[in-house]
Amino acid sequence: MYKMIAIDLDGTLLTDDLLISPGTAAAIRKAIEMGAVVTIATGRMFSSAKLIAQQLGITAPLITYQGAMIKAANDGEVLYERSVSPEIAKSLIEIAHQKNIHLQVYQDDTLYGAAETDKLVAYAKAVNVPYVIEPDLMKLAQKGFTKLLFIDEPGALDGLQKELQLVFGEFAYIEKSKTNYLEVTHPEANKGNALLFLANELGIDRLEVIGIGDNHNDFELIKAAGFGIAMGNAVQAVKDIADYTTLTNNDEGVRHAIDQFILEPEMAVVTTEGSEEHAQLGRKKL
């Protein structure tokens, strides 16, 4: 019944230790063997997502940078890209400098930092990507950025998010991917828009798509998918709009969802309209 499944990484596919359980990996491979299109929908850069895709045998185009870029897993062809304008990028660099908040930027699938800070080093290690030091981020900003990422204490970022949304809300998508990560992308760049674009490119109807996520930046993904699944550890806002809540990321929630709705579809029969029976299933929470 479902032909495509888009899975967030951090807090969803990955455990808190940034691992994928053998059972979850096996379920994903089996779903692919059965003909389902499995893709990743992450805020991470393409090079980081590609490493995980290769590990799982995922060959579908990958949704990366919060939906700012969709890139073919095999040949690296860019199918979709939206970048933050040079003007907005320069303003954000100035704000980060004034407030002394760590900011790292992404351009041409390269991670840049103005200095080798503990936050930059820790981030690069966690997502398994290299980084480049460029003291003059303003010079890079002339081409615009795929994404900008502020890293700081949750309280500081809460205030910053409100400020940025007030000033740049019409010109940028500003959302948290973790309590200490505030990400800025093009206003059209979110996981929901990217999911719908990719599904259309593959000739798959929205109602045949499952989206799985856990955090605020997955809100549009869950909403756009024909069947949205929240992780057991998801923020309440995501659970509130999801059709189903699975187990946590540490309890193989993704594996459970794939078993229920891809590998054992008879357990999730709905009408072609996705109407009342779908709604009843959506109200069933674990």
Topology summary:
Elements: E1 4-7, H1 22-33, E2 37-40, H2 46-56, E3 62-64, E4 69-71, E5 78-81, H3 86-99, E6 102-107, E7 110-113, H4 118-127, E8 132-133, H5 137-141, E9 147-151, H6 154-168, E10 173-178, E11 181-185, H7 191-201, E12 209-213, H8 219-224, E13 227-230, H9 236-241, E14 244-245, H10 253-263, H11 276-282
Parallel strand pairs: 1-2, 1-12, 7-8, 12-13, 13-14
Antiparallel strand pairs: 3-4, 4-5, 6-7, 6-9, 9-11, 10-11
Shape: globular
List the strand order in the largest sheet: 8-7-6-9-11-10
Low-pLDDT runs of 5+ residues are 266-286
On the 0 to 100 scale, the average pLDDT is 92
> End-to-end span in angstroms?
22 Å
Tally of helical runs: 11
Which percent bin holds the helix content? Answer: 25-40%
User: What's the gyration radius in Å?
Assistant: 18 Å
Please state the structural category.
Answer: alpha/beta
Order of helices and strands: EHEHEEEHEEHEHEHEEHEHEHEHH
Number of strands: 14
Structure description:
Residues 266-286 have low confidence and may be disordered. This protein is of the alpha/beta class and 286 residues long. The radius of gyration is 18 Å and the shape is globular. The protein starts with a strand and ends with a helix. A 6-stranded mixed β-sheet has the order 8-7-6-9-11-10, sandwiched between helices. The protein has a 5-stranded parallel β-sheet with strand order 2-1-12-13-14. A 3-stranded antiparallel β-sheet has the order 3-4-5, with helices on both faces. The chain contains 11 helices and 14 strands.
